[in-house]
Amino acid sequence: LPEALVGLVFLFYLAGTFTSAVAGGASDRLGRRSVLLGSVVVIGIGLALTVPDNLALTLVGMLLFTGGFFAAHSVASGWVGLIATDHRAEASALYLFAYYAGSSVAGALAGLAYAGGGWVGVSTFVGALLLVAFALSLRMFRSSTID
Q: Which comes out higher in pLDDT, residue 139 or 102?
């Protein structure tokens, strides 16, 4: 694709703006647990759609992945403030530190996965991370008294 067209992919971040707001309202109606788990599932579906060698599916997958990611992030970051009874600012800072540190480490490892297995290697690596995210979401689902 021409570079100008590839650059338009960044418009998919607008999906994150939309889904973050929608996730907040959905959390109030359906509960944070359900929205967080659902968002992780949407990310997984989006990731799966990027694997086949089909431009239309890849673009839809990227849109779903981005929207699901930002929905999950907004629910998780908002939940931290509710769960923390003391030192809420520190809890939020710790969440953001883990978010950015994890993104940095995962990003570097994804580069190694790409070098070793191409896009299938990256998607397998990210899929494994999503399984961890889903398991942690389930743990929060079971242990948190705040929804």
A: 102
